[in-house]
Amino acid sequence: MKPSKLEAVGALLGNYNDLGYDPVTDTMSYYKNQTPPTKAEIDTKLAELISAWEAQAYARKRKSEYPAIAEQLDILYHSGVAGLQAELKKTKDKFPKG
Predict the structure, then answer these.
(1) Helices (H) and strands (E) in the chain, counts
(2) Could you report the per-residue pLDDT of 44-97, keeping only the tens digit for each?
(3) pTM reported for the whole predicted model
(4) Could you tell me if 3 and 47 are in contact, meaning their C-beta atoms sit under 8 angstroms apart?
(5) For the stretch 48-78, what's the b/e string if a residue is b when 16 or more beta carbons lie within 10 angstroms of its beta carbon?
(6) Taking burial as the number of CB atoms within 10 A of a residue's CB, which of 17, 35, 69, 79 is the most buried?
(7) Which residues make beta-bridge pairs with 22?
(8) Strand partners for 21
């Protein structure tokens, strides 16, 4: 799931457990004498998190396309390492990095 404002604030503060969040009003409450990050800091961190998340789109797509582990083991048993590598390469070629 795409990173949220809550995750950006949690990343800035280092701990999600110290936050209160109301999704209806999109407001946060801070605890333990925390200094809330500025809107600019939150926006910058959120942009960084989204950029990193988008850069991993290929990995999320590959994950659902790879054969199940049981099927991979069957391919490995019947076709050896080269056969398994060839099967996995199909998905890697379908969803290349970057």
Answers:
(1) 4, 2
(2) 999 999 999 999 999 999 999 999 999 999 999 999 999 999 999 999 999 998
(3) 0.67
(4) no
(5) ebeeeeeeeeeeeebeeeeeeeeeeeebeee
(6) 79
(7) 27
(8) 28
